[in-house]
Amino acid sequence: MSRKFLPEEVVVEILLRLPVKSLVRFRCVSKRWLSLISDPRLAKSQFKRAADHIQRLLFPTPFGLGSLEVDAPFGDGSALRELFVPFKQPDLRLNLLGSCDGLVFASHYDHKDFYIWNPSTGEHRKLPDPGISPHPDNEYMYGFGYDSSIDDYKVIVIAFLPPRPCPGYVGKILSLKNDLWKSIKKPDNVFTSFRSAGALCGGAVHWLGGVFRPGPNLAILAFDLAEEKFRQDNEDYYDIAYTCLVNLGGRLCLILLWDADEELWGMMEYGVQKSWARMFRIDGDYSPQPLCMARGNQLVATNDDGNVLIRANPEGKIVESCVFCIEQSPNWHEPSAVFVESLLSPLFALEF
């Protein structure tokens, strides 16, 4: 009796309905399934059709890198994974610089080698040298995002070189499709970012920092990925004690410090300055460093020291906290990142 197989289109339709974790395991079933699941077209279709992308927190631990599902209770051991990083060097920690569609932009702390990595599949890609000489006094800005106008991912590396207050500038952008770096024109104002990793939102990467001018000097600098140009995303300069700029739930958000409490403000309509509105007010005892939004419109954050993971409800009440060993990094480096599970390959542009 002859064996019967399901038509390939039926198999693909079944695979598209499965979670990423299962698909990664099923690559070992057969060469046929490996070929199907490794197809970039299936990866794109699966990512677009997934109704609920699983968010995971990526963070350095004393043993390497850990990953935690942010919607699971912090005490759920099954939600925590130790990850193998194929490009990690034993004597150098990793700098997590951004994520987009399940791909993570990372470097070693010496700012020499840069990688795009999918933690869900383990695939990675080393980027060519951007030609920026590392220096301990350099101040860096990084960005990574998707340019929908050309179906491509782009990487940004910017260095402000000493001396201050009139530093030198080197800016580079790389398209994953052509694998080449090209120069970025300097922004109009000399700018220093408070965080090296930019916040991706609305097709642009954003940094919060200061410009060299008298009086209030806090500004939001944006880089449009399609036009490959800088713009300043605020009409007025701010004078605020402490702030942090992040993408939370698809919104550009600011953390502001008022007296003993911190407030989370979000841009309700991207690009509309008057749409900024308060979303949370949080007890200042934790000095939260926001990471992402979880189910139920809850905020997931670390405290200022990075050793306590907290979850706050929409009223700003801390509903869960857990001592969490997130290794801290020196200034200008990012200790953690959030990514979604996907099959998208960092090598996709090299396969066509």
From TrEMBL:
<dbReference type="InterPro" id="IPR006527">
    <property type="entry name" value="F-box-assoc_dom_typ1"/>
</dbReference>
<dbReference type="InterPro" id="IPR017451">
    <property type="entry name" value="F-box-assoc_interact_dom"/>
</dbReference>
<feature type="domain" description="F-box">
    <location>
        <begin position="1"/>
        <end position="50"/>
    </location>
</feature>
<dbReference type="Pfam" id="PF00646">
    <property type="entry name" value="F-box"/>
</dbReference>
<dbReference type="InterPro" id="IPR050796">
    <property type="entry name" value="SCF_F-box_component"/>
</dbReference>
<protein>
    <recommendedName>
        <fullName>F-box domain-containing protein</fullName>
    </recommendedName>
</protein>
<dbReference type="InterPro" id="IPR001810">
    <property type="entry name" value="F-box_dom"/>
</dbReference>
<dbReference type="Pfam" id="PF07734">
    <property type="entry name" value="FBA_1"/>
</dbReference>
